[in-house]
Specification:
- By secondary structure, the chain is an alpha/beta fold.
- It contains 40 helices and 26 strands.
- The strands form 7 sheets. The chain has a 7-stranded mixed beta sheet, sandwiched between helices.
- A hairpin with a 4-residue loop joins strand 25 and strand 26.
- The longest helix has about 45 residues.
- The termini are far apart.
């Protein structure tokens, strides 16, 4: 009999999962297991560190106190243990520390590969690439592929494959687009590298597809002509006739892969409503009876349209495979075979289901190597403890599966398997987490041998008080409400594992409530009101505000600081190389050194305090400056070089500007990390710093604003949830459709067409329905994680549902809680006294001044807006929705370099799923009145800045902002001769008078833009034209050049 047994623990939030894990580990030690023969694996280094610390604390505490020893011995059901025994266990643990298998899955896999490099086909040791190094390797591979010395034919073949995959592209933008393309699709290729899985009709539709049979242009044209003849034109109203005439006029303009013209889309959608019989069709809200020949012709025509679109998508998917194959063949030879692997590469190298076992081995060699490696590992590890198992991917499990099999099937009972997690917190499906494994593994082993793994549950929360738990149970446990809103499969998965929670702290006072606010501004204001009323920070309580996106976290934290004076920190990744003027100045310097022809970088640098220092040293000549900087970086490295230049900038900083000084320190730290790569390439350093991020240090006395994903595993006294708005929860992620078999192998890959098309095909609609169900389950888990972070109090703020039928978070909360709901004592905080701050020594205050890192709101051109807002605009779009819509339109327009038919077709394909924002952006691209915005001037050289951030010293003030679009023209000598600034405005203004008010409101902003461009380009202000572009109406207004 196994004295420990194989156990699956379903541990609800706050129920003591780590406590159970560490007790299990200590029990194994107490029963004689050697520490190095226990593998305890989790997902993050932080979690692994906490796990290790807790084990040592338990052992040390028990070793030092007989009372503690007696209690721990009882908990692990080895009652005979005394303090001396725990001391012996502690000594054994510390002596074996260098041999412990306690860490992350990634680190464990890397250790395995490092132990067996020859068996896996590696020529000796290997290097695990961090993100920046991996991206540099990718860029080197792409440069190699595009080098002319590689041979023009291969290079052109690759470019043509990419154009085929992306519906046309401009070669000059190819590098950036390829980088994004690989980010999105490379992992899919590595999961299914065989061509037969990509865009093959026989894989997707094994029984054939009627759509594809009707896909030829000839059949579509014949069906269109037959339909024209067969329609009952004499019975049509004027509006109906116009609909059909528009349909036939627009039909020849459509090409597969492009969005359907609106007149065509109207008829196609209405035809599907009467599909497949088509005895009638509704046009202009009236039914039109169709004779049999008309119905057949319409059926053939619509089938041909769908078939043509599917055929184009098949071709596009095959083009994607060709691009990815071309890249991977070069990358594999140049990077992986040289022993430079990412963590994902390491995992794939160990997976038995990787095609051919691994890239470097034949199938037979891979199988033999796997058997040898499994045998060696199996001889080294007796006990397996896996944490957060709901986030384990199928690939990770496939690496461990044989080893776990041996432990579970061990006839001696001397080995064990223990896994713990919570499928209700499975929020990482986007990184391949597979929560279904949790139950599948349990069922698999117990089907082979009933009772092989026993199930235990932890549903008592040691974190949350009764008020919070009451709200959690009411919302998350209402199966009837779930059934009314979400797919049956989702409801079944959720309710199978749900059990009502219980608070283990029934006397903990607190409060939970649902309240409403009209819009995003109201939700922000209500959040501030709650924090001010409860005075949680003053009472020494921890506070978190949880949101859905990092951008919202930054906006809300800034609001709380600005409007309420609260010490709020957005715990998102801080881009210390791009979020402050000091870093902007230094990067401009390095960018100018890396690319001496970069006029914008030189102009930027000249506008910073660096210019004065260089002038004082007579170092203003470009060549001398480039030589100096390159010499410093090669002789001293980037860290010491950055430190020296930061010191040169420091006199220009205000005496109280601790923020910029801290950013200078963080830049030097980033430079130190880059020095560790061994590179002295200045351009690579700039790219590294632009991507480098840090996190604010955890601080108790602040409001922590973060995403729900970042809050997982944490607990706070007070939690506010003000950002639960959104569309339906059952929405699949954008991207390629990847159909997997039950064993998770890829069956087919397809570039899915818009819903108008896929909804009519049983195979594609079935795939989307399954993907939507998975997405919906993950969203339920996100809300569960959010609602289980609070200890004492939780405030949920949503906008009124009204008549909306969206099956989203607010609707779900209304279904379960009503319009308003509360539990507990609304004045709960009054029972907690304010904490008196301890007196600080001068040294302590000085240290605090450095580490608190205050954030300052930059002065921006938009601060100069003036004028009145039309009353009707208050009701046009909600503030949050308008802001999101505006950002979407700006982002789309920033993708356009120049206009023309090719650009329109390219963007039409790229924006097809961007809804109203895509339509508005496309209208701006196509409208003749805005032609000048997108037309390339005939100058000797032209530069276009899109969504270009800037920092500049102007009249003693450091001004920051972002240009929407600037076009700069140069003469033959490279000197700027004129420039045009275009500022896109997405606000809703009624008619000419509304537009005139908007011009008045934005005049100061656009005038400042003109002045900044004039300085950066070295032009007189009169040579810079400034134009406001109103995207709703596709109208433009040029601001007086003399303004």
């Amino acid at each position: 009999m196994n004295p420990t047994g194989h156990v699956m623990i379903l541990a609800s939030a706050g129920s003591g999962k780590t406590y159970a894990l560490t007790n299990r580990y200590v029990r194994l030690l107490a029963l004689g297991a050697k520490p190095e023969r226990i593998a305890a694996l989790t997902f993050t280094r932080k979690a692994a560190g906490e796990f290790f610390d807790e084990i040592l604390k338990k052992l040390a505490g028990a070793a030092a106190d007989e009372g503690v020893a007696k209690k721990l011995a009882a908990e692990i059901t080895v009652p005979a243990l005394r303090a001396a025994d725990f001391l012996k266990l502690l000594r054994g643990m510390t002596e074996a520390m260098h041999r412990l298998n306690l860490g992350t899955l990634d680190s464990f896999f890397a250790r395995v590969v490092r132990a067996f490099p020859l068996e896996l086909g590696l020529a000796g040791d290997f290097e695990v690439l961090q993100e920046h190094a991996a991206r540099l390797e990718r860029r080197r591979v792409l440069r190699r592929m595009f080098a002319h010395t590689e041979g023009g034919t291969a290079r052109q073949d690759f470019i043509e494959a990419f154009k085929r995959a992306t519906f046309g592209t401009e070669e000059k933008r190819l590098g950036a687009r390829l980088d994004a393309f690989l980010d999105e699709h490379a992992e899919v290729y590595l999961a299914a590298p065989e061509a037969a899985a990509w865009g093959r009709a026989e894989r997707i539709w094994p029984a054939g597809s009627a759509w594809l049979a009707a896909a030829t242009a000839k059949k579509r044209a014949a069906a269109a002509e037959a339909l024209k003849v067969a329609l009952p034109w004499a019975t049509f109203s004027e509006a109906q006739r116009a609909r059909w005439e528009d349909f036939f006029a627009a039909l020849p303009d459509w090409a597969p892969g492009a969005p359907l013209p609106k007149p065509v889309e109207y008829v196609v959608k209405n035809a599907f409503k009467a599909w497949p019989g088509l005895a009638e069709i509704t046009v202009e809200r009236k039914k039109v009876l169709l004779a049999p020949d008309a119905g057949r012709a319409l059926h053939a025509l619509v089938s041909g349209i769908v078939g043509a679109e599917l055929a184009r998508r098949l071709e596009t998917t095959q083009g994607m495979w060709a691009v990815l194959r071309g890249y991977e063949e070069v990358y594999d030879g140049a990077v992986r075979r040289a022993g430079r692997l990412t963590f994902a590469d390491v995992q794939r190298l160990l997976r038995p289901d990787t095609p051919d076992g691994a890239w470097l081995l034949s199938r037979d060699a891979a199988a033999e190597a796997r058997l040898f490696i499994d045998w060696r590992l199996d001889a080294q590890i007796d006990h397996w403890l896996l944490d957060e198992f709901q986030d384990t991917s199928h690939g990770q499990w496939s690496v461990l599966r044989n080893l776990i099999d041996e432990a579970v099937q061990d006839p001696t009972g001397a080995r064990s398997f223990f896994y713990v997690g919570d499928v209700k917190q499975a929020i990482y499906a986007w990184r391949e987490g597979d929560s279904r494994l949790f139950r599948e593994i349990f069922d698999h082993y117990n089907a082979a041998r009933p009772g092989a793994i026993r199930e235990e549950r932890l549903d008592r929360s040691w974190r949350s008080g009764p008020a919070v738990i009451a709200m959690v149970n009411r919302v998350m446990g209402d199966g009837e409400a779930l059934a009314r809103l979400f797919p049956a499969e989702v409801v079944a998965r959720w309710t199978r594992e749900w059990r009502d929670h219980e608070s283990a702290q029934p006397k903990l006072g607190g409060y939970a409530s649902l309240r409403t606010a009209e819009d995003e501004a109201g939700r922000f204001a209500e959040t501030l009101k709650i924090l001010q009323k409860t005075e949680a920070l003053e009472r020494g309580l921890s506070v978190a505000v949880l949101v859905q996106k990092n951008s919202t976290a930054a906006e809300l934290a800034d609001y709380l600081r600005r409007e309420g004076g609260l010490p709020a920190v957005a715990e998102s990744d801080l881009h210390v190389g791009t979020d402050n003027p000091l870093a902007g100045a230094l990067l401009a310097l390095f960018r100018a050194a890396a690319h001496p022809g970069d006029q914008a970088a030189w102009a930027h640098m000249r506008m910073t305090p660096l210019a004065a220092g260089l002038a004082a040293e007579s170092r203003t000549e470009r060549d001398a400056l480039v030589v100096r900087l390159l010499g410093e970086t090669h002789a001293k490295g980037f860290e010491r070089t950055v430190e020296a230049w930061v010191r040169q900038l420091e006199p220009a900083l205000a005496a109280d500007d601790a923020f910029s000084r801290e950013r200078g320190r963080q830049l030097a730290e980033a430079a130190r990390l880059f020095d560790e790569t061994g590179s002295r390439d200045v351009a690579e350093f700039v790219q590294f710093v632009e991507r480098h991020t840090v996190r604010d240090a955890d601080t108790a006395a602040v409001v922590r604003v973060m995403t729900v994903h970042k809050a997982k595993g944490m607990g706070f006294d007070l939690v506010v949830l003000p950002d639960l708005e959104g569309t339906r929860l059952a929405a699949r992620r954008r991207g390629l459709a990847v159909q997997r078999a039950p064993d998770r192998t890829v069956e087919w890959v397809f570039d899915l067409p818009p819903e108008t098309f896929y909804a009519q095909d049983d195979v594609l609609a079935g795939h989307v329905a399954a993907a939507e169900a998975d997405a919906c389950y993950e969203e339920l888990a996100v809300l569960y994680v959010a609602m289980t972070r609070a200890r004492r109090a939780m405030y949920v703020i949503t906008e009124p549902v009204g008549t909306s039928q969206s099956h989203n978070f607010p609707r779900w909360l209304q279904e379960t809680l009503g319009e308003a709901w509360s539990s507990g004592d609304a004045s709960w905080f009054n029972a907690i006294k304010a904490v008196s701050p301890e007196p600080e020594s001068e040294a302590g205050l000085a240290a605090l001044a450095v580490t608190r890192r205050p954030r300052r709101s930059a002065r921006t051109p938009s601060e100069g807006k003036a004028g009145e807002m039309a009353g009707e605009r208050l009701f046009a779009l909600d503030g949050g929705g308008a802001a999101r819509f505006g950002r979407a339109v700006h982002g789309l327009l920033a993708q356009v370099e120049w206009g023309g038919a090719l650009a329109e077709a390219e963007q039409a394909a790229a924006w097809r799923d961007d809804g109203a924002a895509g339509l508005e952006a496309m209208a701006c691209l196509r409208d003749p009145e805005l032609a000048e915005v997108w037309t390339k001037p005939a100058a000797a050289r032209v530069a276009v800045w899109r969504e270009r951030a800037f920092e500049i010293v102007l009249e003693g003030a450091w001004v920051t902002g972002v240009f929407d679009r600037v076009v700069v023209e140069f003469d033959d000598s490279g000197r700027a001769i004129r420039a045009a600034v275009y500022d896109f405005k997405t606000e809703r203004e009624a008619g000419y008078s509304g537009r005139a008010r908007a011009v008045t409101r934005h005049e100061a902003q656009i005038t400042l833009y003109r002045r900044v461009v004039a300085v950066l380009a070295g032009l007189p202000v009169a040579a810079v034209r400034a134009t406001l572009v109103f995207t709703e109406t596709a109208k433009k207004v040029t601001v007086d050049a003399g303004a």
